[in-house]
Amino acid sequence: MTEDNRQFRLSHRTELLGGDEERRPLKNAWPEVVGLTAEDAEKRIKEDKSEAHVQVVPPNHFVTADYIDGRVRIFIDLSGRVLKTPVIG
């Protein structure tokens, strides 16, 4: 499975909200924000997952390899645009 396919599957899962007819997307990835500014990307992510802890990561900055549920890292380029798909973890 390619990384793009994995990201699509992760970003299009659903969660049950109380009844079989009540489903909403369970967002774990936001491929649609690639190319946006960090601020716009954060707004879009917060619309889907308001409780997300968003971290903006500038170019060439060190990040830990740990997984934290609820954290979303936004990797940006020198112009402040999102470089790759932000994911939970």
From TrEMBL:
<protein>
    <recommendedName>
        <fullName>Subtilisin inhibitor 1</fullName>
    </recommendedName>
</protein>
<dbReference type="InterPro" id="IPR000864">
    <property type="entry name" value="Prot_inh_pot1"/>
</dbReference>
<dbReference type="GO" id="GO:0009611">
    <property type="term" value="P:response to wounding"/>
</dbReference>
<keyword id="KW-0646">Protease inhibitor</keyword>
<dbReference type="InterPro" id="IPR036354">
    <property type="entry name" value="Prot_inh_pot1_sf"/>
</dbReference>
<dbReference type="Pfam" id="PF00280">
    <property type="entry name" value="potato_inhibit"/>
</dbReference>
<comment type="similarity">
    <text>Belongs to the protease inhibitor I13 (potato type I serine protease inhibitor) family.</text>
</comment>
<dbReference type="GO" id="GO:0004867">
    <property type="term" value="F:serine-type endopeptidase inhibitor activity"/>
</dbReference>
<keyword id="KW-0722">Serine protease inhibitor</keyword>
